Amino acid sequence: MLINIRRFVRFSLVGVSGVAVNQGLLFLLTNYVLGERLYLAAAVISTEMSVLNNFIWNEVWTFKDKHYSNSVYGRLLKFHGSRLLGILIGLVILYILTDVMGIHYLFSNLASIAASTIVNYLTSDLWVWR
After folding, report:
1. What separation in angstroms does the CA of 107 have from each of 56, 66, 128?
2. Is the pLDDT of residue 11 over 80?
3. What is the pLDDT of residues 90-102, one digit of tens each?
4. Where are the domains of the chain?
């Protein structure tokens, strides 16, 4: 199995926009809306917004040339399903790095995002936009 380099670059650029959405919302929600004690709740909300951002951009740009066997709603459901394990692992990493190791939550969040990039690409390419 070879990775389509052009598609992976697009996927990565979409991912960068998702990181910006995730980090920006996490910062705003934690510092101005929910408070630092609820940074994990803020992380869930910011992660969901970045997942939706990434789905939309991947749908209209990264995987636009693929022929689909299901509807956009089916792909959205698959996309969310393909992200559940990554989200759970990310929240665990975020908690451990922040609460156990004392690393600032925004740096911990970046580490949790980095941990799931390849798995997210492969599930997107091989399952969601199949």
Report:
1. 26, 35, 29
2. yes
3. 889 999 999 999 9
4. 8-58+70-128
